[in-house]
Amino acid sequence: MALVTSESVASACEAIQAEGERPTVARVTAKLGGGSPNKVLPLLNEWKDAQRQGARPAPESSPQTDTGADVVTAEMDGAAENLKRGFLAMMAGFVEQERSRAQTAQQAIQAAAEQKVALARQAADQQIADIIAQTKADVDEARAEALAQAEQVEALTEERDEFSGRLTALQSDRDQLAAALKDEQAAHQVAQALADKHGAEVEALRQTVAQAEARTQGAEKAQQTAERRAATAEAAQEKAEQARDQADTERRQVIDQARAQQERDAARIDALTAERDQARQDVAAGKAAADAARRELVERTLAAEAATRTQAEKTEAAQRQAAEALASAEGAKAKAEQLAERLAGETVRAADLAKRLDVAERLAAGTAGDGEAAAKPGRAKGAKPKGE
């Protein structure tokens, strides 16, 4: 910051005057590169007073006479001088009073402007700090929600993986049961083939019995042979019947076993189908839950982004308000500088008034000189020559 002294202010004023400009508080402050106008103004006034006193011409001494006729002139000169001094003292007091008032008003305006700027800056800083704190809190809340949603998604993912494992295990069990079912179906086919084979043998025996009966009925001529053959046929028939009965029993057992196995296979197929349907339902429910969680996560993410955008807009609005407050403060400062300029103008006008007083003094001095000159011819006309 520039050092404001009498010498620096005087140098700045001379430089400004050399540039063809009138020294003012603002110009001197700018020339110094800073400084308080309250300190610059008194020093500027001192420099102007010094300039006026240096430019004032020295009073000319009036010729003194040693005659008794000059007493009246001396008295008139003393009265005029006293009048001039009293008038000058009165005007100097008036100028000093006006200058003091102007300085006081300028200081009050400057203090009010600085206080207003400080209050505006403090309010803007507090508002910006509040907005930053609120934004940080909202961001932390959104981050916490995002973390919670991520944990929920992770839990749903683990649950989905568990369901997938269960589905894989059920599919493996289903494949094993399908293989076992194929084996049982193959065994059933073997049993059915055996039953068919025994049925064919029984049918062959039946045909044999039928042929034997036909031979018995047609063997009227060979009765003995027929009787022997009939006995053989009866024995064969008994064997055939026994074989048929045994074949029927075995066939029924095989059929019963095949039916029981088929029923067991059907029950197992139904159970596997039910498990498969339940697994499909579980998988569908898991997928639905995962889709719902995914949609909810997307919605919450969009909501968080919207909240972040809204908070960013609020922050920008607050920053604009702070900028407007700062601009208002700068405007107040500019008005204060304008008032300082006006005060400087008032000071210049006071200086002009002082100049006018100087002119009045010189006029009064000239008037007193004219009176003295008029008195001297009068005295010379009334005097008598010494020879009379």
Structure summarized in a few sentences:
This protein is mostly helical and 388 residues long. It has five helices and no strands.
Describe this structure as you would to a colleague.
The protein has a domain at 143-321. Mean pLDDT is 76; it is low at 58-67 and 377-388. It has five helices and no strands. It starts with 5 loop residues before the first helix and ends in a 6-residue tail after the last helix. The chain is mainly alpha-helical.
Helix-strand pattern: HHHHH
Number of helices: 5
Largest sheet: none
Terminal CA distance reads 85 Å
Shape: rod-shaped
Strand content: under 5%
User: Which structural category fits the helices and strands?
Assistant: mainly alpha
Helix content: over 70%
What's the Cα radius of gyration? 67 Å
**Mean pLDDT reading:** 76
Can you tell me the residue ranges where pLDDT is under 50 for at least 5 consecutive residues? Answer: 58-67, 377-388
Number of DSSP strand runs: 0
Q: What oligomeric state is this?
A: single chain
Task: Please describe the topology of this protein.
Layout: H1 6-18, H2 25-32, H3 37-55, H4 70-218, H5 223-382
Features:
mainly alpha; 388 residues; 5 helices
